[in-house]
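Backbone-to-sequence.
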């Protein structure tokens, strides 16, 4: 993992994210909706790049992994069987003075209302279920109740048998899924860190019970490789062995990987040993066998599960925090995002030195078209002066800016351009024939 660690403030990240079109508050024009966020053009790309990298690393890049994309709305029995209807709760307290409601285990002072400042006004904590409840179809009764999924995991468990029947993989094997999850958080807070609508990337890795510890350790290492790919400094990621009383109802062992966010050290993702809890519950409620029949004719069994559960928003926030840099160039403060190449929403920007010279602009357009075809995420930029363009590109983490000038058109330097490097601000003269390979360098 990289070693750079910085002390960026949350408001710097939030401000840059909004100013430069990464992330906006949800329903902003109507005053917002707490716990929801909208991704702008650059945010969508950054998020997709993170999710695509994950899919490549954990699904497409492996022979033992299968991808699914299950429906968000599921039969209510899923959430009864999984235990979410009964136990997916957070403790809620209400202030008797101002009637504000708070999550009891997240209060700075357990006796003081953070809204009105009164002490001793909380009643008994109640358990509040975090699932969003809805009705499916035109009849509003108990049979039509469904929930927006609070984790993507159940869409994997419910397809375990389908995938086995279709592909008959050898154990161990895994099923991965990415997608939206919804939780009616009592106190959404800290930018996208605790949202009511967010995305998860989850894997259920099916193993023989006796192998769970060895497989768990392998996943610890794989998670660390993932953090390196995201550009997170090793010193900012910490393993927390979650004590039994704090573990989810289904887990016999959990490691939380925590990250040093500007809000403090908080959970980035979790790795849990879910035993055969979920498949056994499906058997119990659906009355269908979830047993796996080994190809060698040995006894059938219900596999146990290792679950690495990655939150996209928390990964994205950790990426932004790790990439955020401030330095000084020519006496001026500069902000830049040192994003890993694979994650950068835009890889190269192309800029003609003068936007009124037809020949120059035409040449720059040709270079832009060539890069667009070969590199993909390329931006055309011809507004403002060159220094301002560089600043803007630095702030959105563009690794390379190509400037096309009069020397590109004729003379000794014909068919060369200036290639500027984001992190060092160094500029070099590069031949057009080498530009593609240079601007794909990670
Ligand atoms: N299937 C297991 C599961 O959902 P979890 O620890 O509740 O476990 C997994 O959630 C990950 O999802 C967390 O580590 C975090 O990255 C992300 N996550 C959970 N709640 C979130 C929220 N309200 N906002 C943003 N991300 C969240």
């Amino acid at each position: 993992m990289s070693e750079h660690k910085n002390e960026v403030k949350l408001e710097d990240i939030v401000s840059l994210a909004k100013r430069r079109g990464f992330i906006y508050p949800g329903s902003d024009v109507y005053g917002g909706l707490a716990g929801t966020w909208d991704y702008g053009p650059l945010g969508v790309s950054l998020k997709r790049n993170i999710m695509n990298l994950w899919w490549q690393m954990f699904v497409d890049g492996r022979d033992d992994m299968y991808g699914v994309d299950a429906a968000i709305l599921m039969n209510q029995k899923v959430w009864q069987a999984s235990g979410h209807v009964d136990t997916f709760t957070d403790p809620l307290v209400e202030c008797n003075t101002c009637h504000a409601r708070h999550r009891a285990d997240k209060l700075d002072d357990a006796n003081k209302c953070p809204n009105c400042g009164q002490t001793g006004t909380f009643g008994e904590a109640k358990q509040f279920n975090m699932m969003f409840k809805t009705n499916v179809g035109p009849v509003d009764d108990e049979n039509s109740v469904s929930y927006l999924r609070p984790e993507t995991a159940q869409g994997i468990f419910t397809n375990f048998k389908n995938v086995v029947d279709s592909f008959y993989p050898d154990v161990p094997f895994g099923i991965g899924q990415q997608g939206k999850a919804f939780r009616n958080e009592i106190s959404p807070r800290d930018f996208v860190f605790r949202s009511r609508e967010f995305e998860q990337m989850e894997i259920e890795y099916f193993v023989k019970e006796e192998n769970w510890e060895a497989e768990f350790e392998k996943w610890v290492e794989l998670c660390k490789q993932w953090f390196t790919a995201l550009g997170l400094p090793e010193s900012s990621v910490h393993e927390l062995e979650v004590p039994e009383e704090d573990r989810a109802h289904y887990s016999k062992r959990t490691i939380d990987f925590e990250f040093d966010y500007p809000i403090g050290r908080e959970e980035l993702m979790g790795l849990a040993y879910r035993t055969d809890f979920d498949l056994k519950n499906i058997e119990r409620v659906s009355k269908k066998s979830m047993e796996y029949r080994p190809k060698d004719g040995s006894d059938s069994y219900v596999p146990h599960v290792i679950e690495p559960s990655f939150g996209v928003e928390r990964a994205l926030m950790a990426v932004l925090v790790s990439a955020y840099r401030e330095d000084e160039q020519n006496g001026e403060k500069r902000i830049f995002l040192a994003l890993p190449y694979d994650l950068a929403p835009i890889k190269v920007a192309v800029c003609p030195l003068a936007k009124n010279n037809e020949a120059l602009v035409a040449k720059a357009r040709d270079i832009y078209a060539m890069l667009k075809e070969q590199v993909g995420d390329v931006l055309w930029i011809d507004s403002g002066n060159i220094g301002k363009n560089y600043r803007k590109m630095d702030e959105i983490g563009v690794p390379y800016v190509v400037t096309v000038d009069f020397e590109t058109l004729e003379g000794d330097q014909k068919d060369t351009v200036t290639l500027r490097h984001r992190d060092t601000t160094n500029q070099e003269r590069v031949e057009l024939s080498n530009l593609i390979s240079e601007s794909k360098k990670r």
